[in-house]
Design a protein that fits this description.
The protein contains ten helices and 13 strands.
Amino acid sequence: MNPVLEARNLGKHYEGFSLHNVSLSVSPGMIFGIFGPNGAGKTTLIKLLAGQIAPESGEISLFCLGYGNSEVEIKDRIGYCPQEPPFYPDSTPVEIVRFAAPFFSRWDGAYFYGLLDRFHVNAEKKFRHLSLGQKTLFSLALALSHQPDLLLLDEPAAGLDDANRRFLLDTLRAFVADGNKAVIISSHVSDGLGEVAERVLFIAHGAMALTADKDDLLARWKWVHFREGALDKALVANLTALRRHPFGNSGLCSDFPTMSVSLAKAMAAGDVRVENARLSDVLVQLTQGG
């Protein structure tokens, strides 16, 4: 099955910042997460994928089409939720939708207003008077309501409370459930969106730090907690993010399946305990060290 989106060696330069040589492939049925610290290039990458800005190098293909000759068709099939919604502040959601809906061949007004009711967004209230969370939810409703085949969401959990964040995660799972559609989210790992991502791209300083299937990544990265003297120096040297604690030490292992053989005896003796790492642990280590 062809990828929903494929990007190769994307580059974009601004004064003081460059995105360079970023590649990714997103299959039908996938939720793909782009994660990184502030200023890493996440928003630039999402804008490139959404056709909001043009790359200076590299190629982007969506649905086996290119923006150069199929921009209208591509944008009819994607739902884009930007980090900062570009709507006129004195317009109401009703006015914004009257303008936006005719651009989409599969617009579903009943579904849109049903989402606004579910999100408790006042359709007659000026956009400037909506809270940050309500602005995010309005943008999400707009992105979903023309039955897109691909969602491109930049910081979609911004300003959401716990209940609406949970609804967002459930909505993304349901969106890809038929195996034909896909989602790309750009976010901070700490907002919970890493929970639904099946494949991740870590980005820092405009460059790829790592891309992998999430389950494979978390199978490799583990916290190793050990008593003083329980591990020989060669094993300790393979750990990163080393920390001393009152009752022992801990470090982050990036290849646990290989290291587990050497740890087996100490684990059986109770001198070593292994704990699952989080995506945020891996991201911090790859992008900042420590």
